[in-house]
Design goal:
Blueprint: E1 4-7, E2 10-16, H1 18-35, E3 46-51, H2 55-64, E4 70-80, E5 83-90, E6 101-109, H3 113-124, E7 129-137, E8 150-154, E9 160-161, E10 177-180
Parallel strand pairs: 3-4, 3-6, 6-7, 7-8
Antiparallel strand pairs: 1-2, 2-10, 4-5, 9-10
Helix pairs in contact: 1-2
The structure holds inosinic acid (IMP) and magnesium ion.
Inosinic acid binds at residues 53, 78-79, 84, 106-114, 159-161, 165.
Length: 182
């Protein structure tokens, strides 16, 4: 039988097994390592984890990064339940961004509201360069002009959970990615 999950009474079915996620992260890390080859301790880029969804992706990515890197985390939120509210709220004060290259590590880019706000915020804090790195992209929804430098996987416009992503705070601990099945 196909693996299934029930969260808050809603049914989900398997979409992307863990092995597939991990090999997509391998390929993405190779690309980032190539682009940042030669980075020194003095100009170490910041890997900025967007909480809470990107936690697992961040950990997996970080293990594969082979240049000096500074780790930070920030919390921006726009989702309530299974839909974006469209209003992005910042819940973190970020420090020591000035003059640094920043790689924003996102779980998923949907409308792009979150990364757009994040990018603007980082430039206003004096970031020298901002790159966006996301585990997942919903290309049918994304209509912003912010360049997505690193995208591990593209998925249809469906609500998903697992590998850090939640449905009303549950489901983050699934190692596979599941999609709403209704
Ligand atoms: P955006 O601002 O519309 O691009 O949405 C980005 C944020 O919404 C992500 O960082 C996720 O936290 C959340 N999100 C978007 N799509 C999903 C989904 O399918 N499942 C769970 N969370 C999602
Ligand atoms: Mg998120």
């Amino acid at each position: 039988m196909e693996p299934r999950l029930t969260i808050h009474g809603r049914k989900f079915k398997l979409l992307i097994p863990n092995a597939e996620i991990e090999s997509a992260i391998d390929a993405l890390a190779d690309q980032i390592n190539r682009d940042f080859e030669g980075a020194t301790e003095e100009d170490a880029p910041i890997l900025l984890c967007t909480l809470n969804g990107a936690m697992i992706f961040m950990g997996e990515l970080l293990k594969r990064i082979n240049f000096p890197v500074i780790v930070k985390a920030a919390k921006l939120s726009s989702y309530e339940g299974t839909h974006s509210t469209g209003v992005v709220k910042s819940e973190t004060v970020l420090k020591d961004i000035e003059g640094r290259s920043v790689i924003v590590v996102e779980d998923i880019v949907d409308t792009g509201n979150t990364i757009e706000v994040m990018e603007r915020m980082l430039f206003s804090l004096g970031a020298a360069d901002v790159r966006i790195c996301t585990l997942l992209l919903k290309p049918d929804v994304y209509k912003k002009s912010t360049v997505l430098d690193y995208v591990a996987m593209r998925i249809p416009n469906k609500f998903i959970v697992g590998f850090g992503l939640d449905y009303d705070e549950l489901g983050r601990n699934s190692k596979d990615i599941y999609v709403l099945d209704e």
